[in-house]
Write a structure and sequence with these properties.
Helices cover 25% and strands 21% of the residues. By secondary structure, the protein is of the alpha+beta class.
Length: 203
């Protein structure tokens, strides 16, 4: 498939890389393009590599940082192949793309295949991926560099009406860590309950 708007590509796939445990559609994609970033950070598709660590698919799939270890809604077999500019995760479950709202541990089926998802993300990232935070960040004269995500404070899920949300580009693993902790804090709390929000060291 043809993808437009690629602004960063992952390192070449190692000759010894094993793709046999991946869905055939994703394996065929990585064999040609070992992960990438679209539109300056609107979407980051992970690759099979250990370096850079933030780009590693298996780190967030099976490693100590595997997302299913932090989120009840995820299963060990769910393949977290991508994330958007604010760290919401996209994963494959039974050949269908699902979205994890990282702040709240809610999941929802997007009801499209991998290639359908990538085609929509490539063609209309602002609308399909809800990339308004990235557009706001750019309008302020800021860039989102590879390996970074936008951290929103206060988090979108707890923001009060009329309260301005600040956006800062920080290392992706920090955003993922803080979101997982927030989701664990609030998943069983009733609406309106007060919590203390952890913030990344970089904020």
């Amino acid at each position: 498939m043809e993808l437009s708007g690629i602004t960063w590509q992952g390192p070449p796939l190692s000759p010894s890389a094993d793709l046999s445990d991946l869905p055939p559609s994703f394996a065929s994609l990585l064999a040609k393009l070992n992960g990438f970033i679209l539109r300056g950070g609107a979407l980051h598709v992970r690759g099979v590599t250990d370096d850079p660590p933030w780009h590693s698919l298996r780190k967030y799939w099976h490693g100590e940082s595997a997302l299913y270890r932090s989120y009840r809604s995820l299963r060990p077999g769910d393949l977290p192949f991508a994330q958007d500019c604010v760290g919401d995760q996209f994963f494959l479950r039974d050949s269908v793309v699902w979205q994890l709202s990282a702040e709240t541990d809610d999941v929802e089926s997007i009801q499209v295949s991998l290639f359908e998802f990538l085609a929509k993300a490539s063609g209309s990232p602002l609308e399909f991926l809800s990339a308004e935070p990235l557009a706001t960040h750019r309008d302020a004269g800021q860039e989102l560099h590879p390996g970074q995500l936008l951290f929103a404070y206060p988090p979108f899920c707890v923001g009060e009406a009329g309260l301005e949300v600040s956006l800062k580009a920080i290392p992706a693993d920090e955003v993922i860590r803080v979101h997982a902790k927030l989701a664990a804090q609030i998943r069983d709390l009733p609406d309106g309950h007060k919590i203390r929000i952890d913030t990344p060291d970089a904020v």
